[in-house]
Amino acid sequence: MAKILVIGEISDGKLNAGTAKVLAAANAIGGEIVVALLGTDVSAAAEGASKLAGVTKVLKVERPENAHVLAATYAPQIVELSKGYSHVLFPGTAFGKDIAPRVAAKLGVQQVSDIMAVHSATSFDRPTYAGNAILTVEAPAEPAIVATIRLASFTAVEASGSASIEAASTTATLPAHTRFVKLEAQKSERPDLQAANKVVSGGRALGSSDNFKIIYSFADKIGAAVGASRAAVDSGYVPNDMQVGQTGKIIAPELYFAIGISGAIQHLAGIKDARTIVAINKDAEAPIFEIADYGLVGDLFAVVPELEAKV
To answer: Whole-model pTM?
Structure first.
């Protein structure tokens, strides 16, 4: 039977919603599932993790060195924790993509990236060529399978469990060559882009960062996260952490608005798992309409305010 170690991600002291999607993949593999949380005080996140379906135990790894997320610091501890586990799973976020390769290298295994479907404990589907082809890969079971989970491909498990919470210690020697300097991050009261059920994205057609306010206003009205196309990011309208697409963030909200976005292939690769796609564009031939569930041809500066007024 598989024994799975899920490395939970913590955001602002709370368990990141993506962890519940990693657990969906872990449940598909089957077996004993343990969630490990690293930090200085992870009590609140541990409480959240203990309630997620399928979790048998939550480990709290609290050390002063874990005050900041550093792959060089976290990886040796995770390798130590992983002894006896058949799988070590990470969310396919910046957090997981930063740490997982180091863990895989230290264990001497090849990492399986972006798992989007589980066939067995060792067989998985992952995308390639911007999602235009799907590979089925067979991973060696020994010494352990290290993988990142494509969050857009899984539905979060419910909070229906009651797992035990235990303190765990690690004695791994931590490297001195890496130190935390500072963190520059965009702060927002809006939902997290990769975890949101509703997302409103704007494209180059907005014309300027000032005009992007129309996207923020509509998103706030419906309680949605805000994203952008690569063209909008490259034009300087919004910061790059808002980019949606193959070279940005791959998302799967229940509802996705593509406003002023033509539909470049790299953008479509990032939203193809969205449940419902609504496109607003003045170009009736825009590729985005080929995958949209609902399309509206018109000037976004007239359509979006009118739409906002009706919701």
So the answer is: 0.84
